Amino acid sequence: MHTSVALLVELGVVLAALSFLGAAARRFGFSPIPLYLLAGLALGPGGVAPVPAAGEFIRTGATIGVVLLLLTLGLEFSVEELSVSLRRHLPSAGVDMVLNAVPGALTGRLLGLDWTGSLALAGITWISSSGIIARLLTDLRRLGNRETPAVLSVLVLEDVATAGFLPLLAVLASGGAWWQAVLGMSLGVAVVVLAFIASRRLRGPLARLLDTADTEQMLLRVLSLTLIVAGVTELLEASAAVGAFLLGLALTGQVADRTRAVIGPLRDLFAAAFFLAVGLSVHPADLVPMLPAALALAAVTGCTKIATGWYAAGRDGAGPQGRLRAGTALITRGEFSLVIASLIGTAGHGSLGPLTAAYVIVLAVAGPVATRLIDRPAAGAATAARARPEQAGGGRG
Amino acid sequence: MDVTEVLLPGVGVRYEFTTSAGDRLGIVTARSGDVDVVAYTADPDVAVPLFRLTRDEADTVADILGALRIAERFADLTREIPGLGAGQIPVPAGSPFAGRPLGETRARTRTGASIVAIVRNDHVIASPGPGQVMRPGDVLVVIGTHDGIAGVERILRG
């Protein structure tokens, strides 16, 4: 076997750089996604340190990264959580879609994108990053707060909407007609419903097929099944990502827990490859002219997300400060905006990739910063409140 | 006690209740197994974080609290039935049965008292089988007549 020294060394250096960037981001409590994107920009053609040999591997890895991102998204679901979210926050999801998708669609038209490109941009501005936000809420210790279930419900409903949105976009992007797109979307929705029924019915067989005590066996079985399902759905022009998502939905309970555990590290590696590849595919020179549009779009859709969170948290009876916390938490966009942009490809939508990269870099940083800042006064009050019971306890003792 | 269950989609479940002392507590169990314990004070919207436990730490806390419950339940049982007692007997380091299976003591046959649990460090082995090996420092929870409990203690001392 021929060993490519260039590939090994380049890839090693790239991964070392990612590790350094990731550690730096985590140290300050931020998501590494924007840094990975910037790293990709720096490594690509026209960047400061091109890596031609590793680039090929990263691009292949990116395909697997998208599939694994969507699989783990599907794994997060439970029917119970979805039905609770639907019951309480269906209006919030409606507000979320109208307020955040419309600015994206309008911007797309203003920038001269066609209908498909505009629809993609609508999705890009609509879907918040459930991964970054769930982690942020945990890190900021907000899981006990009143507004948190509203925020998480909005995220869950967005993710379900994605399941209908992705097939629609995939068909349109491949040049299909409107009726084919609508058919694709109905098929997507139908398969989601089927997957939910299947997850009840198929729990036994799927568990027997996948669940073994041997971690290596489990990893191989889950990965092979995921790639086959993703490949077949791609063949049916419904996008590999959708197939992986549906498989994730069908896995529930203990199998889902174990799958999350074995697939987690692999997902992190290939997702990093995906974020790098997005950066790689964008020429830094193309990014600069997109900055004003990205910043303006970020400002507008940041405000509309605050309005969304304000409305959703209000439905759960949270006060003004909590409603602001919910709104600012929702600002963050990330992996799914990038997935949508990558789905549509570059053919005829050259400006969409750079615009999305810039937009995600801005909001993946601004979202967490905003929601931290909004909580400053309350954080002081919380410290004071914590001091009191300790004194009372001391008195009793 | 009224426990409210709040679903946190994609994250876990939050349990909330008010203690008899009037404190409003929240326990968040994440999917990962991590547990966040929070309190609600001045602002009902904001939970004040008290402490965060990993899965292992949460298991340990549950065992400690559970051990207390087991001992209490036995105490209740012995109050209800006259003549029946519960005792906690340590396995001394020099015991001939340290490192031996429980069955070899033949404690129940000889004294009529039952060993219902073994407390080891901070966890409880409930209903130990005869094959369960005792270690020095273990504490046996024994149910029986007072003479029977004293008999088990004598056997363990050797």
TrEMBL record, chain A:
Membrane topology according to the record: Multi-pass membrane protein
Residues in coiled coil: none
InterPro entries: Cation/H_exchanger_TM, Na+/solute_symporter_sf
GO aspect biological process, one term: proton transmembrane transport
GO molecular function terms attached to this record: antiporter activity
Organism: Actinoplanes teichomyceticus
Descriptive protein name: Potassium/proton antiporter membrane subunit (CPA2 family)
Location within or outside the cell: Membrane
Record-annotated membrane-spanning stretches: 35-54, 61-79, 119-138, 150-172, 178-197, 218-233, 291-312, 324-344, 356-374
Keywords: Membrane, Transmembrane, Transmembrane helix, Transport
Residue span, Cation/H+ exchanger transmembrane domain: 18-365
Family statement drawn from the similarity comment of this UniProt entry: Belongs to the monovalent cation:proton antiporter 2 (CPA2) transporter (TC 2.A.37) family.
GO cellular component: membrane
Primary location recorded for the protein, binned into one broad class: membrane
Automatic annotation (TrEMBL), chain B:
Domain RCK C-terminal: 72-158
Pfam family membership, one: TrkA_C
Protein name: Potassium/proton antiporter regulatory subunit (CPA2 family)
GO biological process: potassium ion transport
GO molecular function terms noted in the UniProt entry: monoatomic cation transmembrane transporter activity
Native source organism of the sequence: Actinoplanes teichomyceticus
